[in-house]
Amino acid sequence: MDTAAYLRSHIRTVPDWPAPGVMFRDITPLLQDPKVFRVLIDTFVHRYMTPELRPSVIAGLDARGFIIGSVLAYELGVGFVPIRKKGKLPFTTVEETYELEYGSATVELHTDAVKPGDRVVLIDDLIATGGTMMAGRRLLEKLGATVTEGAAIVDLPELGGSSKLRESGLELFTLLDFAGH
Description:
Elements: H1 3-8, E1 12-15, E2 23-26, H2 28-32, H3 34-48, E3 57-61, H4 64-76, E4 79-85, E5 93-100, E6 103-110, E7 119-127, H5 131-142, E8 146-155, H6 161-167, E9 172-177
Parallel strand pairs: 3-4, 3-7, 7-8, 8-9
Antiparallel strand pairs: 1-2, 4-6, 5-6
Helix pairs in contact: 3-4
């Protein structure tokens, strides 16, 4: 079994959550089994150990991006910065608001989280509409960092986020997609 199929076999689909008609892709089974978790992390580590892709910082999006991102940063020997929902960071922040299907949300980043010239990989568990990742990218760029790539375990291409992110010029790396499921 290849890596993508192995990881896919450990993602739970929860129908009608959090709303009727939604097929929620639950990554928690990937984290519960130490062997599966190792395969998941090692896949990202091997990619970003490559000198031309190696970041100086990993930025994780609230909240599941923290899990993958912090372990990835540790394994690569680079720093980790959290991009949090508004009101969760205790120091001076920059913020970015983005549109949701119904309303908007705001994410924040400490003003000293990255430096101009830092090469950042921005990571989350999945890409749906792309709004959170786009807002995270804008925050990092406000502080002078370069987002070299957006990364996620799962892409939900039917929601259009990955296309929107690529059209904006962001390189993307995802391990698998759930198109048409």
